[in-house]
Design brief:
heterodimer, A: alpha+beta, Glutaredoxin, Glutathione S-transferase Yfyf (Class Pi), Chain A, domain 2, 2 domains, 4-stranded mixed beta sheet, globular, B: alpha+beta, 7% strand, glutathione transferase activity (chain A), EC 2.5.1.18 (chain A), Glutathione-S-Trfase_C_sf (chain A)
């Protein structure tokens, strides 16, 4: 019996959160080893466990995988969340890269200079409501299906739900102009594996607070 | 007969260059429509051709594909440059993502303010020679094969060559400590489709010149 995947990262969202979401949605149990101080990162590096000296790193199927997109691609393909053919994969990739860009903006927010925070937050909301959400709203409208691609749950749906919830943490009513996304959110949140992940006590991580941001900066020399 | 892929981007490397490399390596002919002005970009947006209002955009197989990685994944899979199974794909993805990080660093060099340029160059050299190139040198050493993954030519080899050449533009002797990468470079450069792409007159783009920077900035800002 294969060991459970083991995630190596700080105890926060960052670039590991999408991986946690995808594993959870696929119903895959996983373990976590948290990097709490610089020495923990140094040890992983000195042990030769990190191909490019960076985390995320996920031990899975005998590999020490690094690079979040490589890890996500592998998990999606392994658990049949990557469409049924090349064209469906192309659409999933396009959608996921969009939500990656949007969530990336939010991820970087705590690390921007304090006096730019308000402006950056406004830009996030603008991009969410004028560049990204309209695309997914239209995709759902055009085909009328429950899922973004191929009438079947895929990585694109899981990633979109993660992004929606993250933007709502910035602005709770951000979906007000997007009725189909609201329904999508309700529906996708109710998928048993995802519902479980959304409950308190799951391995889902909270938004970063001042203390965790300071610790991350220390560990990664930022 | 399928139409040739059509690339929409300014006449420069940027995020489109890796796509040009992969198509060329796969022996796929392609057309290019160069964005020269902001109005041109606005028109593409207005016509609804850009899913997220951004380029690169590649018209291919009836799709208007956007997002560099999505486009590269599609081309790699279509032309059998993505390994033979999930595990080979995993290795290819790890290698390619690492190389993208280095590429990004190199790509941003021209956007650095004058007083930061020297330090940025030092960072590029440091990362290339201490973080990235050692990994690929070791991979080649460990299996002793000609290609990075699965003893077969893949997108990882194409990306590594592209990145090596870009790094050498920053520092010509950057491969000094990496004998296997030196022979890799020569070997891959000699693959007929790649050799052709490396010749003058191909669709490969030159590095961005400082005087061209304002024109590019104007298109996007």
């Amino acid at each position: 019996m294969a060991g459970k995947p083991k995630l190596h990262y700080t105890k926060g969202r960052g670039k590991m959160e999408s991986i946690r979401w995808l594993l959870a949605a696929a119903g895959v149990e996983f373990e976590e080893e948290f990097i709490e101080k610089k020495e923990d990162l140094e040890k992983l590096r000195n042990d030769g466990s990190l191909m490019f000296q960076q985390v995320p790193m996920v031990e899975i199927d005998g590999m020490k995988m690094v690079q979040s997109r490589a890890i996500l691609n592998y998990i999606a393909a392994k658990y049949n969340l990557y469409g049924k053919d090349l064209k469906e994969r192309a659409w999933i990739d396009m959608y996921v890269e969009g939500t990656t860009d949007l969530m990336g903006m939010i991820m970087h927010l705590p690390f921007q200079p304090a006096d730019t925070k308000e402006k950056n937050l406004a830009l996030i909301i603008e991009r969410a409501t004028t560049r990204y959400f309209p695309v997914y709203e239209k995709a759902l409208k055009d085909h009328g299906h429950d899922y973004l691609v191929g009438n079947k749950l895929s990585w694109a749906d899981i990633h979109l739900l993660e992004a929606i919830l993250m933007v709502e943490e910035c602005k709770p009513d951000v979906l007000s102009a997007f009725p189909l996304l609201q329904a999508f959110k309700g529906r996708t949140s109710n998928i048993p594996t995802i519902k479980k992940f959304l409950q308190p006590g799951s391995q889902r991580k909270p938004p970063p607070d001042e203390k965790s941001v300071a610790n991350v900066k220390k560990i990664f020399n930022m | 007969m399928a139409a040739k892929p059509k690339l929409h981007y300014p006449n420069g490397r940027g995020r489109m260059e890796s796509i040009r490399w992969l198509l060329a390596a796969a022996g796929v002919e392609f057309d290019e429509c160069f964005l020269e002005t902001k109005d041109h970009l606005m028109k593409l947006k207005k016509d609804g051709f850009l899913l997220f209002q951004q380029v690169p955009m590649v018209e291919i197989d009836g799709m208007k594909m956007v997002q560099t990685r999505a486009i590269l994944n599609y081309i790699a899979a279509k032309y059998n440059l993505y390994g033979k199974d999930l595990k080979e794909r995993a290795l290819i993805d790890m290698y390619v993502e690492g190389l993208f990080d280095l590429n990004e660093l190199i790509m941003h060099h021209c956007f650095q303010p004058a007083d930061k340029k020297e330090q940025h160059l030092a960072t590029i050299e440091d990362k290339a020679t201490n973080r990235y190139f050692p990994v690929f040198e070791k991979v080649l050493k460990d299996h002793g094969q000609d290609f990075l993954v699965g003893n077969q030519f893949s997108r990882a080899d194409v990306q590594l060559l592209e990145t090596i050449l870009m790094a050498e533009e920053c520092k010509p002797d950057i491969l000094a400590q990496f004998p296997l990468l030196q022979s890799f470079k020569a070997r891959i450069s000699n693959i007929p489709t790649i050799k052709k792409f490396l010749q003058p007159g191909s669709q490969r783009k030159p590095p961005l010149k400082e005087e061209d920077l304002p024109k590019i900035m104007k298109i996007f800002h």
